[in-house]
Design a protein that fits this description.
heterodimer; A: alpha/beta; Rossmann fold; 2 domains; six-stranded mixed beta sheet; two-stranded antiparallel sheet; 8 helices; 8 strands; about 35% helix; B: MetI-like fold; MetI-like fold; about 75% helix
Chain lengths: ~220, ~500
């Protein structure tokens, strides 16, 4: 599904990855770990470009339109599968069916009473759930997410990440919570200084093995 | 049960919705007739004039250009000086009120009043610019000073004289902003100076009006091209070090000497401006009936037409801004389309709305339509320019949609607060300009002001100008209230 062969990633002149070789197959659920600046976001962006039309994208902060409601921000995941006319109509006057579909999704995310509140009036954790909601509503098989549950509490983070991963066949998720990575993903890729420092199935790894990445 | 609607966007939508309803009502009430029988033919002639401009037809052309520059320089300098002095006393309510009244009266109205005292002279042109600009400079400088960091002033030892404090701890903080704003105002003054030609002063506008009225479009086009060249090259010739030189040259070319007699001024104020019934020894009842008939015949119709035209223009301005800003935004189109967009907006921004209205009047004949088109094109280009520039700061996510979806979902919600703030700021300017368009023959307040001057009934002139002041202050207060309620941030350079 994804593959790099001695690829140079990042901006020309200041590449984050000098020579990256990696392949990720369909059906794999992968966690990206590593200290900040290791290249997680750069790698995710490169993956997105390889399968642009298959990907449900969940980037970090700033990815939502703050003045629009939760409903509209989640619906934006579906912009590509509807006609422009229908999209314009939904911006002004959403249909009952659309409200129902997005409403159900919001309920699973614990946002049902905030459905028509704008994102700039939500807490950081609530906004993060909206971003996940948009990725879910994209309804595409491959999830690429950058720290999707970093502002949620441990329990909620685990539940929502599981819920989200269950609805995608393939996923690559950047995380900083190591136990979450071990609990939810089958394969762990550890990045350090623009190189792959670790690449192994998660059931062969312990928390201690992962700590080494950050030292 | 549907959860409650509680979004920031819906607040903006509601306010814009009400303004749009007002604009639509204004359209229903507006006189939009095209009275010219063959506007297409006239447009063709105009276009051929613009394609073959005649720069040699009149030697008055270069003289008019020099006058335009000279008035603008002297007016801006004097206005900045007076405004600066007022800004130092900005904490006083009285100063703020005086400044508000000075800038609420348009340059052309000041010009009409001053013509009666100082005649067709340099000083009329200079003061017509300097007086309202003093009010504008005072406000802008005053607000710069208010927003400047107070810490350096607090750090000075106690008993430092307030003047020393001002020059050491306040002025240096805002000097750059002052200078930049002064440059922008000079550009505005060039436009104002050109327009003053329409009331008889010997600037570009005078010859432009003659050329276009007589249908010698090739000469008119040459004047307009020169005017554009002057403004487009501003950034190359306007150097801080050269400012004193330009000022000396401006004064040497057209010295602002007072040739009139002082008793003209005294008579103008103590007799001409006094309501006719009082001047002729009448009492309150005569004054009242004079006022009532003035209200029915001129004040009310003038105010009504001004508001109707202004609101209709605001609506079209908003629609045009929405359409035009993507032309220059890096989020849409390609390099070529953005260059073309910039070109279009620059021309529309640079041409004074008064000129545009004049052209459309010639093409379409007198009705509100030319006024609405002119105001909307000029202001719409300004708002679109500012909004487009603001959109340069937006960073969209990598999988953001393109085309109409991008515009409606990603960009429009994000630029809305700025767009709305720019529009509300410009609302007052639109109203000011609407009143002035009357001088061209559209029946707004300016029409009645112009005719009262022609009839030497200056008592009426004063009252009608007062009406424009009240209208402008009212719109300004309304706009400020709305901006505050919606928590819209002010934008610079509006």
């Amino acid at each position: 599904m994804f593959s790099f062969d001695k690829a140079s990633l990042g901006h020309p002149g200041q590449a984050v990855f000098e020579s990256l070789s990696l392949s990720i197959g369909a059906g794999e659920i992968v966690a990206l770990l590593g200290p900040s600046g290791a290249g997680k976001s750069t790698l995710l962006e490169a993956l997105r470009q390889q399968q642009e039309h298959q990907v449900a994208w969940c980037p970090q902060a700033g990815s939502l339109v703050p003045m629009l409601s939760v409903f509209h921000n989640i619906y934006m995941g579906a912009l590509a599968r509807h006609s422009t006319l229908y999209n314009l109509r939904t911006l002004l006057l959403p249909s009952a069916a659309e409200k129902h579909a997005v409403g159900e999704l919001a309920q699973a995310l614990g946002l049902e009473d905030k459905l028509f509140t704008s994102v700039d009036r939500l807490s950081g954790g609530q906004a993060q759930r909206v971003a996940l909601g948009r990725a879910l509503y994209t309804r595409r098989p491959v999830l690429l997410a950058d720290e999707p549950v970093s502002s949620l509490d441990e329990h909620q983070g685990l539940t929502l990440l599981r819920h989200t991963l269950a609805q995608h066949t393939t996923a690559v998720v950047a995380l900083h919570d190591r136990s979450l990575a071990l609990a939810c993903c089958q394969r762990i890729i550890g990045l350090r200084h623009g190189e792959i420092a670790l690449d192994a199935p998660s059931d062969s790894l312990s928390l201690g093995d992962l700590d080494a990445l950050y030292q | 049960m549907t959860p409650p609607l509680n979004t920031t966007a819906s607040q903006w939508r509601r306010t814009s919705g009400w303004l749009a309803v007002a604009g639509l009502l204004a359209f229903l009430l507006a006189d939009l007739e095209i009275t010219r029988s063959s506007p297409g033919h006239e447009l063709q002639r105009m276009a051929s004039g613009f394609l073959s401009p005649d720069f040699l037809a009149t030697d008055a052309l270069w003289r008019a250009l020099a006058n335009t520059l000279s008035f603008a320089w002297q007016g801006t300098a004097l206005g900045a000086l007076l405004g600066f002095l007022m800004a130092m006393l900005w904490h006083r309510r009285a100063v703020r009120s005086v400044a508000a009244c000075l800038r609420a009266i348009h340059e052309l109205f000041w010009g009409l009043l001053l013509l009666q005292i100082t005649g067709l002279s340099t000083i009329t042109g200079v003061l017509a610019i300097a007086i309202p600009y003093a009010g504008i400079f005072a406000k802008v400088f005053g607000e710069f000073l208010e927003e400047a960091d107070p810490a350096p002033g607090r750090a000075l030892p106690q008993h430092t004289s307030s003047l020393s404090l001002f020059f050491y701890a306040r002025l240096p903080l805002v000097w750059r902003a002052f200078r930049a704003y002064g440059g922008y105002r000079l550009e505005c003054a060039l436009r104002a100076s050109a327009i003053l030609g329409f009331i008889g002063l010997p600037t570009i506008g005078f010859h432009l009006e003659t050329a276009f009225r007589e249908g010698t479009y090739d000469q008119g086009a040459a004047l307009l091209y020169l005017f554009f060249a002057l403004i487009f090259t501003l950034r190359w010739w306007l150097r801080p070090a050269l400012v004193p030189l330009y000022l000396i040259a401006a004064i040497a070319w057209a010295p602002p000497l007072f040739h009139g007699q002082l008793d003209t001024l005294v008579r103008f104020v103590t007799e001409d401006l006094v309501p006719a019934p009082l001047r002729h020894g009448g009492g309150t009842s005569e004054l009242l009936s004079w006022l009532i008939s003035l209200w029915h015949q001129q004040l009310w119709p003038g105010l009504w037409q001004t508001v109707v035209l202004g609101m209709a223009a605001l609506l079209v301005t908003a629609l045009l801004s929405l359409v035009l800003f993507p032309l220059i935004s890096p989020l849409f189109g390609n390099r070529a389309s953005r260059h073309a967009g910039h070109g279009l907006l620059v021309v529309l921004r640079t041409t004074p709305e008064f000129f545009l209205a004049f052209f459309f009047l010639i093409l379409l004949g007198p009705s509100m339509l030319p006024g609405i088109m002119a105001l909307a094109l000029h202001t719409g280009a300004i708002v679109a320019h500012l909004t487009g520039r603001f959109s340069e700061t937006l960073v969209l996510r990598a999988d953001a949609p393109s085309g109409v979806n991008r515009y409606a979902w990603e960009v429009l919600p994000r630029v809305s607060p700025n767009l709305l703030a720019f529009l509300l700021y410009r609302w007052e300017v639109i109203m000011r300009e609407t009143a002035v368009l009357g001088i061209l023959g559209i029946h707004t307040l300016g029409f009645y002001i112009d005719s009262s001057v022609a009839e030497f009934r200056f008592d009426r002139t004063a009252l009608l100008i007062l009406a424009t002041v009240i209208l402008n202050l009212g719109v300004d207060a309304l706009s400020r209230g709305l901006r505050k309620r919606l928590r819209l941030k002010p934008g610079l350079g509006v």
